[in-house]
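Incident log, support desk, overnight shift.

02:14 A customer reports that sequence design results differ from what the structure should imply. Their input is reproduced verbatim below. On-call engineer (initials T.W.) acknowledged and began investigating.
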């Protein structure tokens, strides 16, 4: 994987889903034991190379969507609480290098 940014488990099945970011596509992968997702041989997105596990969804392939929140600057993760509340993590900073800025993260 290039940059697995977030992951989540499907509560009813225990399946692992991984959000791998950057490159040509943002992609969502099904976590599988021993899987090779292709990086750095294959750029993000669908591929025909049988050595690698392709994504279950690449962001540019999304044809329909519904906006449910807006106005956030650089959201990096969202979660819903058991009571339905929405938590949004903002990170307006690079993680490593001279562009790193302290105090630029917020949890809403």
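02:41 Re-run completed on a clean worker. Output:
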């Amino acid at each position: 994987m290039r940059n697995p940014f977030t992951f989540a488990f499907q509560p009813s099945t225990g399946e692992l889903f991984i959000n791998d970011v950057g490159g040509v596509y943002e992609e969502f992968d099904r976590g599988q034991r021993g899987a090779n997702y292709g990086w750095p041989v294959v750029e993000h997105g669908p591929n025909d190379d049988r050595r690698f596990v392709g994504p279950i969804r690449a962001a540019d392939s999304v044809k329909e969507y519904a906006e449910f929140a807006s106005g956030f600057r650089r959201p990096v993760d969202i979660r819903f609480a058991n009571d339905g509340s929405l938590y949004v993590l903002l990170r307006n900073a690079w993680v490593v290098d001279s562009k790193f800025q302290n105090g630029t993260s917020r949890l809403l």
